[in-house]
Design a protein that fits this description.
Elements: H1 15-75, H2 78-87
Protein name: Cell division protein FtsL
Transmembrane segments: 21-40
Keywords: Membrane, Transmembrane, Transmembrane helix
Length: 114
Amino acid sequence: MYPKLPMYSTKRFNSDDILKLGFKLSVVALVLSILSQMFFANKLAVKSSELTELNDRKVVLEKDLAKLEFDNSVLSSLMNIEQRALQLGFVPMTGTILAIRPAPTVSAVNIPSL
């Protein structure tokens, strides 16, 4: 026959075993905490340097955009366009300009009721 198994553990833990287990768990928690702190600090440092590089690139692009907008405003001025047209051989206009008015639109308000 098989020996009878006890329903509960008869072994008792003494205070030294509990203190040793608590110390080991504390050391493991401390090591994990330090490793996770180093990991997150490294991630933050990398993101910070990337952000600084992107901010510098943004400043350069904003300067380029301002220069292009200035060039655009200079080149699109009416005096420059007239000078360029004369250089290309266009002749100044001597006649009058006739404007064609758009056809009037009919709205539902103007339709007489029957």
